[in-house]
Design goal:
mainly alpha, single chain, 21 helices, globular
Length: 378
């Protein structure tokens, strides 16, 4: 209920035409955003030089996914959030940091989860990629490059020299500009809604997520522990410690794949959802919109490995839904079986994620260009 109130507060102005244009205005808006996501996927793949036939196949994975268009047509705002995230990727690829930062600040205000992308974007804004007055050079897709480019091997996670270079050049103009603009937009809109709705908004929009405990059954592996111990008050440390696995996994993935931004966003989102304290079906849309962006760089064959991953993920989810139906509609005491189903679903998410990572061909978005000043010093 709290999450629903947050969305109502933030979307109320967008959905105002429901009252004076048509009562289905919101569904039209969300469905149009769903189509816009498909257009942005096509635009990103075109910018990266992906062949037309592969692009059409990739876009179809989003447009003809019954799960994603059902979410939008039933009246859910997730397609709007997905469209904004894809537009941010487009802005960064075109070198438009100002617009990208504005939209990033707005989307984090609308939905707090995109905050996980902040460090990835900061790392991407490398001085070798972004130079004042010059657009970044996008690395084109080609079948030959995928097989032979030696630079397509991700850097080691704990490379001390690489870490030193990152921290010594951390405060660049592009990074400071992006951080200041996005933070300004975020605090501006948060301030407006705080003025309108007070502390209740601030708590439920931001602070609530840090210590959230939801006893209702959901896909998360944490739900059963929370259900059993909900009557006693959890300490702040207990509430925050569940973020530790999420944080560690995010750091590893970002360190490994940040330069391959769409893929980094995808694996970050899958991991974030899988390790979250609360998981509902609409969360899956967050990474479904990013899946088409990584398919052209995947060495996974649909037959049989791809089919197995799809069936394993859907089967684990269907198995969970069966026990959820028994609990919710039949009133059966199947909490333990439901928790076991959550563990199986977590295993399915983990297996699919690891398989996708293994079969992915690492491909940085930008070509690294050494600034002229660096060349002179050499």
């Amino acid at each position: 209920m709290e999450n629903g109130k947050i969305l109502i507060w933030r979307l109320a102005f967008l959905l105002a035409p429901n009252s004076f244009i048509h009562q289905s205005w919101g569904k039209f808006l969300f469905s149009a955003s769903d189509l816009l996501v498909g257009y942005f996927i096509r635009a990103i793949l075109k910018l990266r030089g992906v062949p037309e036939n592969i692009s059409i196949y990739s876009v179809s994975v989003w447009l003809f996914n019954p799960f994603t268009f059902t979410i939008g047509t039933r009246g859910n705002c997730e397609p709007i959030v997905c469209a904004i995230i894809l537009w941010i990727i487009i802005c960064l690829m075109r070198g438009n940091l100002f617009q990208g930062a504005v939209w990033y600040g707005l989307v984090v205000h609308m939905r707090i989860y995109p905050i996980i992308y902040a460090l990835s974007v900061i790392i991407l804004l490398d001085p070798h990629n972004f130079h004042p007055g010059r657009r970044p050079v996008i690395k084109d897709w080609s079948s030959r490059q995928l097989k032979s480019d030696a630079s397509s091997v991700p850097a080691k996670v704990f490379d001390l020299n690489r870490l030193w270079v990152f921290f010594s050049t951390m405060f660049t103009r592009s990074r400071i500009l992006f951080g200041l603009i996005s933070a300004t937009i975020f605090f501006f809109f948060t301030g407006i809604f705080f003025y309108l709705y007070g502390w209740e908004f601030l708590h439920e929009a931001l602070l609530y997520h840090l210590t959230r405990t939801d006893p209702r059954h959901n896909f998360s592996i944490y739900f059963y522990h929370i259900y059993l111990n909900f009557e006693r008050e959890f300490s702040v440390l207990e509430k925050l410690i569940s973020f530790l696995p999420q944080l560690l996994v995010q750091i590893v993935l970002i360190s490994r794949f940040a330069q391959d931004l769409p893929f980094c966003f995808f694996v970050q989102t899958v991991a974030f959802v899988a390790f979250n304290k609360v998981i509902t079906a609409q969360y899956f849309v967050w990474f479904f919109c990013l899946l088409p962006l990584i398919l052209p760089w995947s060495k996974m064959k649909l037959k049989w490995e791809g089919i197995f991953c799809i069936l394993f993920w859907i089967g684990a989810q269907t198995h969970w839904l069966l026990w959820g139906y028994m609990l919710e509609f039949k009133g059966k005491q199947v909490f333990l079986q439901l928790w076991a189903a959550s563990l199986l679903f977590f295993a399915a998410n983990t297996y699919v994620l690891i398989t996708i990572i293994i079969r992915h061909t690492y491909s940085p978005v930008f070509k690294r260009v050494v600034p002229s000043s660096s060349r002179k010093t050499r």
